[in-house]
Structures are given as structure tokens and as C-alpha cells.
Amino acid sequence: MKKLDEDITLIKTKGYVYYAKWLSTIIVIIAVACRSVPEIPKIYDVVLSFIGCIGWLYVGLAWKDRALIMLNAVLAFMLGVSVLQSLF
């Protein structure tokens, strides 16, 4: 019989992925803060959310986590379209 410790695998993030994870998290938090202040233009929220999603997409690809890849690929596409609509 296996011990509980043998079944648990932790994701140990190293190198650039570690910094991308935390930087992307901070960027997404700033984007949500921008969203909550009516005086800040919507484009700041959209651009920062897009950058954060791209960062998390990189992390998902590094971890080979399909849920993170799917979520952030779709969000990055939708936010990218929104950025392009704002610019043109």
C-alpha cells in the first residue's frame, strides 16, 4: 500500500516560469483594479488583462496544464480582438 506522501506531486516552478507566474498574477490584479475604477479608460484593463493572460498561457505551456492552456488561449484571443477593436 502506498503512503499518502507518494501520491502527492507538487508543481515546482523554476527559472523564468516562476517569475512569469508571479508577474502575470500581479498584472491581472492591476487590470482588475483598473476595471473597478470608473475614471480609468477601459483600454488599460483590456491591455493589462491581455498581457497577464499571455503570461499565464506561457506558464500553462511550461507546466503542460491543458486547463490553463485552454483558458488563457481563449481569453488571450478574446482580449486581443478587443485590443484591436479599440485601436482601429
Topology:
Layout: H1 4-7, H2 16-36, H3 42-63, H4 66-87
Question: Your description of this structure?
Answer:
The chain is mostly helical and 88 residues long. The chain has one domain. It is 78% helix and 0% strand. The protein contains 4 helices and no strands. Helix 2 packs antiparallel against helix 3 (42-63). It starts with a helix and ends with a helix.
Features:
single chain, 88 residues, mainly alpha, 0% strand, elongated
Strand content: under 5%
The count of helical stretches stands at 4
Give the total of beta strands.
0
Order of helices and strands: HHHH
In whole angstroms, the N-to-C terminal distance is: 62 Å
DSSP helix fraction = over 70%
Shape: elongated
Mean pLDDT: 91
Please give the domain count: 1
